[in-house]
Design brief:
Radius of gyration of chain B: 26 Å
Strand content of chain B: 15-25%
Mean pLDDT of chain A: 85
CATH topology of the largest domain in chain B: OB fold (Dihydrolipoamide Acetyltransferase, E2P)
Number of helices of chain B: 5
CATH class of the largest domain in chain A: Mainly Alpha
Largest interface: A-B, 91 and 82 residues
Helix content of chain A: over 70%
Helix content of chain B: 10-25%
Number of strands of chain B: 8
CATH architecture of the largest domain in chain B: Beta Barrel
Radius of gyration of chain A: 19 Å
Number of helices of chain A: 8
Strand content of chain A: under 5%
Number of domains of chain B: 2
CATH architecture of the largest domain in chain A: Orthogonal Bundle
CATH topology of the largest domain in chain A: Rna Polymerase Sigma Factor, Chain: A
Oligomer: heterodimer
Chain lengths: ~170, ~230
Amino acid sequence: METLKARSGRELAGRFTDLYAREQPRVCAYVHRRCGDRGAAEELTAEVFRTAWERMTGGQEVGSGWLFVTARNLLSNHYRSVARLTELHRTVADELGRAPVSERDDAVLDALDRLAPAHREVLLLSYWDGLSATEAGEVLGCGASAVWVRLHRARKAFRAAYDLPEESV
Amino acid sequence: MRVKGLIRSVNPVPPPAADQDLSARAEGELAALVGPEGPVVSAGSASGPWRSSRRGVLLGAVACGVVLAVGGAFLGLHGGSPSGSGSHRASGPGIGPGGSAMADEPSYGSTAELEGAASLIVRARVGEGHQESVEGVDTTVATAKVVAGAKGAIPGDSVEVAYTTPGTGPETTSFTSGKEYVLLLDKGPGGRFVLVNTTQGWYEVRGNAPVAGKDNHVGLSAGVRKALGLHPR
């Protein structure tokens, strides 16, 4: 007869596996977009999930927002200076064997680079990483409703930056 | 093109597909954590990468490895440090509940969805309002005198509604002071209410009928119209 401990262990493993299968590709892509290196992203993501597993086996809950916050913290430990998005984009494109960006893409990346970090971050979390308002709120340290407000403000700032002629910047 | 589309078009690493398999390395990492046979995504998992290729494998296949791994943790719980080795530099907040709404203003495709999103639906006369700055966003706060209610508990004969000031952003609401509107509201901070959506959260009342804004193609249900004393347009 299955012991209580065995059943608990099996259920925990099942929950972790679900979480891993669902979130590992998202977290890895999130890290890859910020460090520009697929191998480093996989290594760092593995560290995130090792920590998550420890946490869960220690009786604590882990959700998707926690995974992204932990990934963000690990990134800040390993990658002190974040390259400009235009450079980062070029690095990833080279790595993946993609064609260079178009003029319009360059202008969009440049506009993002010129935004305040808080504006840029909420836009990338939402539109690149596909985080929900709750997940983005955990990463940004605010509630979901504040994410809406910040996103609204960031979109406004992006529009202004994208429309500005080069000489005015 | 809208801001979202422009920014998505320069995403250097496209979002993973729902049916994307885990990389060999990721599978190995998972197996190393929960057991050598590789566990199975449960039937309830919406987008598990192994849903097609591995769903048939039973969780029991890994029970031994899992129990060994987890058993150690339980021993730790009962007899040692519950927080593991403490060797990791990462730290995170408490429970991450996740969420289903994408971080953009939600759009509702049906009457049921739209009305379901509102905790309060009222017919009200919107007052002048005053300007405030909420995290740098120009916001108008107006008192709306309630004429009738269709959903939710109305906290008095009027409600305070906060909305982005017209003309200050790409998607704003334009209310005329003194006019009647149907408002679909959700609770906001400080006892105020916010529109469920700046384009779909309101209908102007004209000739005793609700008139949707130009970007809103969803109508109100017969039940809501009746409760508010309105006719179909």
